[in-house]
Amino acid sequence: MADATPLYQTYNRAPMRFERGEGVWLITEKGERYLDFAAGVAVNSLGHAHPHLVDALKAQADKVWHVSNLYEVPGQEELGRRLTEATFADRVFFTNSGAEALECAIKTARRYHFAKGHPEKFHIITMEGAFHGRTIATIAAGGQEKYLEGFGPKAPGFDQVPFGDLDAVKAAITDATAAVLVEPVQGEGGIRPIPVEMLRALRDICDEHGLLLILDEVQCGVGRTGKLFAYEWAGITPDIMAVAKGIGGGFPLGACLATDDAAEGMKAGTHGSTYGGNPLAMAVGNAVLDVVLADGFLEHVRDTALVFRQGLASLKDRFPDVIEDIRGEGLMLGIKAKIPNVELLMAMRAEHLLGVPAGDNVIRLLPPLTVTAEEARDGLARIERAAERVRETLAKSA
Known about the structure:
Shape: globular
Mean pLDDT: 96
């Protein structure tokens, strides 16, 4: 062995070990405090150790953890009802992760056409730069070569078109097309929102051609953009939607939401999950919705996001040699860097601020939705000092 770790070497992990968290803060084993604007890649939607989530998890842990889906799970009925009442959906399938939610969405779309007598309709149109997960099917859906390389032939049935190219979507439709799958805001792809006009046009195209519209809101959903789900900004509804990350507030939880019509083909035995919808996950998921659906919470997200976005725009104006652009929606924001994004990310880390790298030379800023305006300003001050660090380094190397 090259080193002492027993772990797969599939991650370039930062040499940091966090012992505990408090709200927007993470504390290392040595007691160093970091402002967490990564939030576990948009997972810790209510920050760390949120008392309502902790209480819900502890209370359920004293009762029952797992029974499987051989039996009814009351928490599933409750969380499923709350999700359908708050969204376009009529049906919910619970999973453990975003990739599993996407797998369910893909299978639901294919099965829909099969049930209607068209098994040949299984192709799904996706957009370049997308990230839908790490399974064999979802890396094919994302279509990025760096994730496909070395895993054999790409799974068939996924047709990529250039990001934002509506004409390319229309041209890609064939008699074998079943659905269109997009992220309303690409996360891994570099915080790239699809304009609301295009989402509306995609809805119209799907209606015109008898296709299903699938949205991947794994990263942009559950309040991240200032609405419960990002599709609401466009005033449309999808047929199927994959959700995860923020819905569990840090506990592994995903869900596939669908209309009655879209889910009609998913009969007993067509899909399943041993752990999906377990009582622990359901307790936490319901606790997350208690907070996110409370009066004023999403308004708070929008208000804080405005403060943060305006501050980032000011930094862009003051550091044009470091920051090329600011992009995103709500508290799903990105800094497109002029220099390699890892250099700015490391400078931010030196200021005890955490962010997430993304494609297109972007750093994602995904603070907990509970972040206050004061904490957002603290983050802005740290980004400013980080930009100054980078500028000094550039000057020395000039």
